[in-house]
Amino acid sequence: MEWYYSNDGEQAGPVTLDQLTELFQSGAVKPSDLVWNESMTEWTPIGNVGAFAASSLAKEPAAGSPVELPISVAPPLSVAPVTGPGALPTQLGGMSQQTDGLAITSLILGILSMACCLGLLTGIPGAICGHIALGRIKRLPNLQGSGLAIAGLILSYLGIAFSVIYLAFGGMAVFLEETLKQIEAGQP
């Protein structure tokens, strides 16, 4: 029977039971890592599976010894290439997909930079929010909205560019107007 397991948030396998046992005993697969085979209905922590459960109890610290608590929780696993009943779930631990608020903010600021000719005032914060949102979406799999962030970035950069062009031509127009006044004033 072939086994699949999670390794750093990615699905690995197939491996045989002997290979999985060796990985578990070496510490490459931890008791909290998820495993699945075709006889199982869902992915389960290896420490809760048959013979592995007894092995994981032996690895727990003795009473009275210091216990190290994890500082952070690992992100949920991503979509697995295996389809059917054995596919890794897209949502683990009850985490639901949600749209990143900074992606929405970036889009709104990008629209304002184009529609209200506020390119520098709203375009720069829109671009900053868009870049931060994209970074967060890449790091946190429960966040979505990369399309909103990209649209916000594009509109923000266009708003900035149009503002710079407008200011350049506006400044040039003022310069030309002042030059013409000086020429007219200098002529009899």
Key words describing this protein structure:
6 strands, four-stranded antiparallel sheet, 5 helices, 188 residues, alpha+beta
Q: What does the model show?
A:
The chain is 52% helix and 11% strand. 26% of the residues are buried. It is built from five helices and six strands, in the order ββαββαβααβα. It has helices at residues 17-26, 50-59, 101-115, 119-139, 146-186, and strands at residues 3-7, 10-15, 34-37, 44-45, 98-99, 143-144. It is an alpha+beta fold.
Quick rundown:
With 188 residues, the chain is an alpha+beta fold. Helices cover 52% and strands 11% of the residues.
Task: Draw up the topology in text.
Elements: E1 3-7, E2 10-15, H1 17-26, E3 34-37, E4 44-45, H2 50-59, E5 98-99, H3 101-115, H4 119-139, E6 143-144, H5 146-186
Question: Structural class of the secondary elements?
Answer: alpha+beta
Largest sheet: 4 strands, antiparallel
Low-confidence stretches: 57-62, 67-95
Element-by-element helix/strand order: EEHEEHEHHEH
Reading side by side through the largest sheet, how are the strands ordered?
2-1-3-4
Q: Helix content range of the residues, please?
A: 40-55%
Q: Mean pLDDT, rounded to whole units? A: 76
- Principal-axis shape equals rod-shaped
- Measured on Cα atoms, how large is the radius of gyration? 29 Å
- Total number of helical segments? 5
**Portion in beta strands:** 5-15%
Annotation, overall tally of beta strands: 6
Distance between the termini: 102 Å
